[in-house]
Amino acid sequence: MDDDFLAEILAEEARHEEEAAQMEAEAREYEAMKARQYSGNGGNANNMGGGKPKMGGAGRTMPKSAGGGNFSKMEEELKKKEAEKASLQAAKEEEEQEQEAERIRLKREAAFEAELKKMNEEQKKKAQQQKKKDAKIVNRILKASKSGKHYAVLGIRNFELQIGPYYVFNFKIGPLVLFRVKTKAIKRIYRNLARTVHPDKNRDGRAEEAFHAIEQSAAILTDEKQRQDYDKKIIASRRRRNKYAVDSVMRVSHTVWSQTATTFKMTKKVLGPFSTPILVVGALIMP
């Protein structure tokens, strides 16, 4: 299994090296075309100062508009290929991380099964119960980490509320931040959780992956700059979600009101002068 995994990595690296070589060749060609265009423009400028312009094939230069269009197109293609290469590289790294995490999980699971064989029935039962508890903690951490919820990774309930800023006569008031979890408390929570999830203590196969996840989340939340950037994203996401909820309620309310008004008009038109008494009686007798 390890040999197949290594062969796949080597083949993938060879493909990426080939793509990089191709991009470098295209970049060199692009630079050469730019150099030819600049030398051609310089020749035209010298001809404008006096003398007869050359009419032969060797002295004739590419029209500026056509050359500029080709260069722009080539530059766009290069940028597109660079973006695709970066995306492929990120996907490759993510896949390698997942494969490595799976390899470690299988290795740890095999080690746990080997330990069980050395235990008596009572010890096996206790070990399996502890493993279930460990797995529950690990699954919660990895689920939150996959969603990018760093507070949830550490098990912190984030009730932070930002009010403002408000501007009154060119004066800025706020923002006022309430219920902010202190950095000291985050570090304490991280240390306690790290002891629980550490691969030497936690028996779940993905404990190492979960340990790296809490390290990453703690590093972001204990760094003031990174935490501010992350909090801004959370606030923006909440505002978008709240706006969508309000808009949805308004749309539903408008639809219900329109349908009610239409029903009332139709009823009044059909029943004529008896519509109002009938509607009032119907409203009174409804449970």
Can you offer a commentary on this structure?
- By secondary structure, the protein is mainly alpha-helical.
- The chain contains 8 helices and 4 strands; from the N terminus they run ααααββββαααα.
- The strands form 2 sheets. It has a two-stranded antiparallel ribbon with strand order 1-4. Strands 2-3 form a two-stranded antiparallel sheet.
- Helix 1 packs antiparallel against helix 2, helix 3 crosses helix 6 (207-221) and helix 5 (183-197) packs antiparallel against helix 6 (207-221).
- The chain is extended and about 85 Å long.
- The relative contact order is 0.05.
| Ends apart, CA distance between termini | 70 Å
Mean pLDDT: 80
The arrangement of helices and strands along the chain is HHHHEEEEHHHH
Low-confidence stretches: 43-66
- For the CA atoms, what is the radius of gyration? 34 Å
Please state roughly what percent of the residues sit in beta strands, choosing from under 5%, 5-15%, 15-25%, 25-35%, 35-45% or over 45%: under 5%
Amount of helix:
over 70%
Biggest sheet details = 2 strands, antiparallel
